[in-house]
Design goal:
Structural class: alpha+beta
Strand content: 15-25%
CATH class of the largest domain: Alpha Beta
Strand order of the largest sheet: 1-9-10-11-14-8-7-2
Number of helices: 12
Number of domains: 2
CATH superfamily of the largest domain: Bira Bifunctional Protein, Domain 2
Number of strands: 16
Radius of gyration: 27 Å
């Protein structure tokens, strides 16, 4: 969340951020609530001081063996006023918190202003799109021919929007996340984490999924726990309510998890095959950094995710998102998109975001300055390093052969006992 003092002192900046991100929120109403709330809190604190003074006076009178009746009566009046004002404050606090948790992060000045994806910019292209001497098949067709994907049985087991990997398909899935974890830990300097796949409401609120995106999450109503939509949630909350030392920063974590998303409102949209599923595997990258280095760390984070794609020999492009396409919590974000020749479209496989101190304020993650010893909020970043469902699409469709076999990228072969290709039986 934003610093309320910042909102109070910079309402026009916040209004512009709301407009640029396409979010409707009445900041003037919030500022009115904030003003009333502060006035009431000031009043109740003054009454409490008055009550304490009267209480001390009553004690003094009683020690003198006099009757404190008049003072007791006035103290009851003060107590009643305090109770009435605190009730008003509590009522305002609910509206106040709703505003605070629904004000988005401020986009960075380098982010292109625009209403949505049409204003995004391609900032990098890598690799050459393949040319086939045959009509390229989709991953659904390849998966069926090679008997490595089974959507019919997945639907029988769980419903639509789920996938069943079989044989070498399952082996490839496992090989991919092991390959990525090794790359990020051995070369890029991340520490591996294996977190819970269920988190509490506070953790979801800390990273910005709640309250805004609750309808898109799987929730266990009896326990008020959520299946994680991304490892970003549990990994970022590792340091919730903690004070880190400046010498510890930057902290880099990587984690494999399954991810779960209801995809509410996506009925009929990109729902075939692996393009939009309710459960998928992902290797996540999370950073805790000093504020002064966070945008530099974002570029490094992007490079770490890009290397995964390069080693898998897949052509890709990097998109700088516009203000209207930024997530609620992000100040700046890059997407990595892979080309799927069978589907004839680009697919997002990674989003690399800088959240500045937005998540850290919600989760209460601070660091102590080495020199001044003052406490500041860290900046948090995260990126997919990378998401597997669509990565599998690209591998199957980019590396396919005329006989529907698929070549295994060289970097992945050590994780598949040297297997060079998956061939139809």
């Amino acid at each position: 969340m934003l610093d309320v003092k910042f909102v109070r002192e910079n309402p026009e900046i916040v209004k512009k951020a709301l407009k640029d991100k396409g979010i409707k929120l009445d900041i003037e109403e919030f500022l009115g609530l904030d003003k009333t709330r502060r006035e009431l809190v000031t009043e109740v604190e003054a009454l409490k001081r008055q009550k304490n003074e009267v209480s001390d006076k009553i004690g003094e009178i009683m020690r003198e063996k006099k009757n404190p009746k008049d003072f007791i009566g006035s103290m009851k009046v003060v107590s009643q006023k305090i109770a009435e004002i605190e009730a008003k404050v509590e009522e305002i606090n609910q509206k106040y918190a709703n505003f605070v948790y629904n004000i988005p992060n401020i986009p960075h000045e380098s982010v292109n202003i625009g209403p949505g994806p049409e204003a995004n910019k391609v900032v990098k292209e890598w690799g050459v799109l393949p040319k086939f001497d045959f009509e390229p098949r989709t991953h659904l067709e390849i998966g069926e021919i090679l008997d490595i994907l089974d959507f019919g049985r997945a639907t029988k087991i769980a419903g639509t929007g789920f996938a069943l990997y079989k044989g070498l398909g399952a082996r490839m899935e496992r090989a991919l996340f092991n390959f990525m974890l090794d790359l990020h830990t051995k070369k890029h300097g991340y520490k591996e984490i294996f977190p819970p796949f269920l988190v509490n409401r506070r953790s979801m609120t800390g990273t910005g999924q709640l309250p805004k995106l609750e309808e898109d999450m799987y929730r266990l109503k009896d326990d008020d726990l959520f299946l994680i939509p991304t490892a970003e949630v549990p990994v970022t909350n590792i340091h919730a309510d903690e004070v880190l030392e400046e010498d510890e920063l930057p902290i880099r974590y990587t984690a494999y998890t399954a991810c779960f998303r209801r995809e509410a409102g996506s009925y009929g949209k990109d729902t075939k095959g692996l393009t939009r599923v309710h459960q998928f595997d992902k290797v996540e990258l999370v950073k805790f950094v000093e504020p002064r280095t966070s945008y530099e760390e974002l570029e490094k984070l992007l490079a770490d995710a890009e290397e995964v794609i390069q080693l898998l020999e897949l052509p890709y492009r990097v998109i700088a998102l516009s203000t209207g396409d930024l997530s609620f919590a992000a100040s700046k974000c890059y997407d990595i998109e892979l080309w799927a020749p069978g589907l004839k479209r680009w697919l997002e496989v990674s989003s690399c975001s800088n959240f500045t101190d937005f998540q850290a304020r919600r989760a209460n993650i601070k660091f102590r300055s080495r020199q001044s010893k003052k406490l500041q909020f860290v900046h948090t970043l995260n990126g997919s390093g990378v998401a597997l469902a669509r990565l599998v699409i690209a591998i199957l469709e980019i590396h396919q052969n005329k006989d529907s076999g698929v070549n295994i990228p060289r970097a992945l072969r050590p994780y598949m006992d040297g297997l060079e290709s998956i061939k139809p039986e």
